[in-house]
Amino acid sequence: MRFWLLLIIIFFLNQSCGKQANVLKIKGSDTEVNISVLLAEAYFSQNRHTPLSVSGGGSGLGIASLMNGLADIANSSRPMNSEEEALFKAKNIDIIPYVFAYDALAIITHPSVLTDSLSIEAIKQIFKGDITDWQQLGLEKMPLTVYGRQNNSGTHDYLKKKLGIEFSLHAKEMNGNAQIIEAVKVDKGGIGYVGAGYVLKNGKQADTGIKILKVYTPSSKACSPLDYDAVMSQQYYFQRPLFQYILKSSYEKAKPILAFERSETGQKIIVSNGYFPIKK
């Protein structure tokens, strides 16, 4: 998927000045790092005087880096939790929350899994570890393997809270969305969860080596993250805002890139790369 094997992508714009104190440092969410890189590239093309750096590592890492003075902006695919808020307050560090896009979490399987949809209840039982073979869902007998993220991942935290579960101890923890996709592609019984930006491109499925499932509840029809209208009308079950937390002391430095993200150009980049725009 494009250049996503890079875990950290850094832009040093205006390197000749050598003043890294002026670099705006953005760290955190693996879900957000790809789109942040694309937005930074586009912003740089118009503002070559502004030095930026963008790196991933997970939402938890981004928030910790913000707290420790190692970032100006923390990308986070989940809201900051009460413990984190308390630590910022104890350290007298003021932060500004910001939403620049929306994401729809995709449930993916190997193409050989003989279903196009799953109920939310079935997904709960799978990720909890109560269902360990596809035969338990009335499908072909085949061991089921869950691929997910580590507990410092905002996506892991979001899904755990959305489903109200603890993940199975047997779930395989991967370093990022791209690694989950690659694992599911070679495991006929595999199932995982990834940000839609990793599987969509210009509104279409970007990788045919996986199957993107529709999901449904007892009171809703089956919907897919491929269905733009369903996501925008909040019919799709797994959708969430994508946060950026900004140090108040860095806000003036950050304002131009934040404005660009929400501009017409920035929102077009967001939509064309599988994410969803801010509603006007």
* Total of helices: 9
Strand fraction band? 15-25%
Average pLDDT figure:
90
**Count of spatially separate domains:** 2
Compact overview of the structure:
The chain is α/β, with parallel strands linked by helices.
Architecture blueprint of SSEs:
Elements: E1 8-9, E2 24-28, H1 30-46, E3 52-57, H2 59-67, E4 73-76, H3 82-90, E5 95-109, E6 117-119, H4 120-128, E7 145-149, H5 154-163, E8 172-174, H6 177-185, E9 190-195, E10 200-201, E11 204-205, E12 211-212, E13 214-216, H7 228-232, E14 239-247, H8 251-262, H9 264-272
Parallel strand pairs: 2-3, 2-4, 6-13, 7-8, 7-9
Antiparallel strand pairs: 1-3, 4-14, 5-9, 5-12, 5-14, 10-11
How would you describe this protein?
By secondary structure, the chain is α/β, with parallel strands linked by helices. It has 2 domains: 8-102 and 242-272, D-Maltodextrin-Binding Protein, domain 2 (3-Layer(aba) Sandwich), CATH 3.40.190; 104-232, D-Maltodextrin-Binding Protein, domain 2. The chain contains 9 helices and 14 strands. The chain has helices at residues 30-46, 59-67, 82-90, 120-128, 154-163, 177-185, 228-232, 251-262, 264-272; strands at residues 8-9, 24-28, 52-57, 73-76, 95-109, 117-119, 145-149, 172-174, 190-195, 200-201, 204-205, 211-212, 214-216, 239-247. The strands form 3 sheets. Strands 1, 2, 3, 4, 5, 7, 8, 9, 12 and 14 form a 10-stranded mixed β-sheet that branches. α5 (154-163) links the parallel β7 and β8. The longest helix has 17 residues, at 30-46. The two termini are 30 Å apart. Residues 1-19 have low confidence and may be disordered.
